[in-house]
Automatic annotation (TrEMBL):
The keyword Transferase applies. Pathway: Metabolic intermediate biosynthesis; acetyl-CoA biosynthesis; acetyl-CoA from acetate: step 2/2. It comes from Photobacterium profundum 3TCK. The keyword Isomerase does not apply. This is Phosphate acetyltransferase. It catalyses: acetyl-CoA + phosphate = acetyl phosphate + CoA. Residues 6-326 form the Phosphate acetyl/butaryl transferase domain. It is an enzyme of class 2 (transferase).
């Protein structure tokens, strides 16, 4: 079974409540309708209510099973403003500024996640990645054991011509520009958790470099090796190769020659890139030349799921990211309720 199909099926087992702040975009409405009809998630749409209802009618999309909230008229405004002020006052935010910020659908949606009214959020069809990530970090915050929010792509290799089959995690390809050894270790540990939750298999991690098993000497290699050692100290049972070139990470015959003592043995399902430059090039090569399907960038390290979309995304992309967000919520055991008792008026 394809990895993305497994994710969709897993999402259906325990649907989560997902809030979408770009509800005036037809692509978002179409994806929201699809996941609702398929029982993947219950959906809260945040935006200008009259515009949302008008666009849905124009697109012949029924919102019958969804909740629509307009921040400007919501009774949650006051409590959300106070919550945001409490979170950001030490950074100089005033209560008056907080009252203005909560009128923005992106901010309002993430406050719903923070307050437990939704299990996760998806945005980025309209907003920039910078805005999505900044807002999520400031409002939702990071996991207690993680100081770094990073990103990953879920790469689908499911075509007959693919030598490798199934899903892989590529990280970080969209957020942390030049991680130090500690940050790179955090990325690898978060990506391993993402592999367990989404690929539903044990991670086999390759710390990518231009060196394999000490074959080159350079400070860039030293960083990767140091990161690997931090990971192994924190997760001693994790299968991980220290510094490894891509061919030895994914080809068993080459791994046998270059890394004879490897636990990964050329069967990596998690590729950790040394910096954003390599990661961004790597995932786009796999997508554009290798014919892989790239889902993401997805965020890891947050206290609750909040995922990003490409502004060039289509309805299928949004549908898949919603399903991923549901499974992430299941893994963090925060799915306790469906949409709150609100009605479309």
């Amino acid at each position: 079974m394809k990895a993305i199909i497994r994710i969709v099926e897993q999402a259906k087992k325990k649907p989560a409540c997902i809030v979408l702040c770009e509800a005036e975009d037809p692509r978002v409405l179409q994806a929201a309708y699809r996941v609702t009809q398929e029982g993947i998630a219950s959906i809260i749409l945040v935006g200008n209510k009259s515009n949302v209802l008008r666009i849905a009618a124009e697109q012949f999309i029924s919102l019958e099973s969804m909740v629509v909230i307009d921040p400007k008229t919501s009774p949650l405004r006051e409590s959300f403003s106070q919550c945001l002020f409490n979170l950001r006052s030490e950074k100089g935010m005033t209560l008056e500024t907080a009252k203005q910020e909560v009128l923005k659908p992106l901010c309002f949606s993430n406050l719903m996640v923070r307050k437990g009214m939704a299990d996760g959020s998806v945005s980025g069809a309209v907003h920039t990645t910078g805005d999505v990530v900044k807002n999520a970090i400031q409002i939702i915050g990071t996991k207690p054991d993680c100081k770094l929010v990073s990103s990953f792509f879920l790469m689908m290799l499911c075509q007959p011509f693919h030598h490798l089959k199934g899903g892989m995690i590529f990280s970080d390809c969209g957020l942390v520009v030049d991680p130090n050894a500690k940050q790179l270790a955090d990325i690898a540990l978060s990506a391993s958790d993402s592999a367990r939750g989404l690929l539903m298999e044990e991670p086999k991690v390759a710390m990518l470099s231009f060196s394999t098993n000490g074959s080159a000497k350079h400070t860039a290699v030293d960083k990767v090796v140091a990161a690997s050692q931090i990971v192994q100290a924190k997760s001693p049972n994790l299968a991980i190769d220290d510094d490894v070139q891509l061919d030895a990470a994914i080809v068993a015959e080459i791994a046998d020659k270059k890394v004879p003592g490897s636990k990964v043995k050329g069967q990596s399902n998690v590729l950790i890139f040394p910096n954003l430059e390599a990661g961004n090039i790597g995932y786009k090569l796999a997508e554009r030349v290798g014919g892989a399907v790239a889902i993401g960038p997805l965020l890891q390290g947050l206290a609750k799921p909040a995922n990003d979309l490409s502004r060039g995304c289509n309805t299928d992309d949004i549908y898949h990211v919603i399903a991923v967000t549901v499974v992430q919520a299941q893994q963090s055991e925060i799915v306790k309720k469906r949409a709150p008792e609100l009605t479309i008026t």
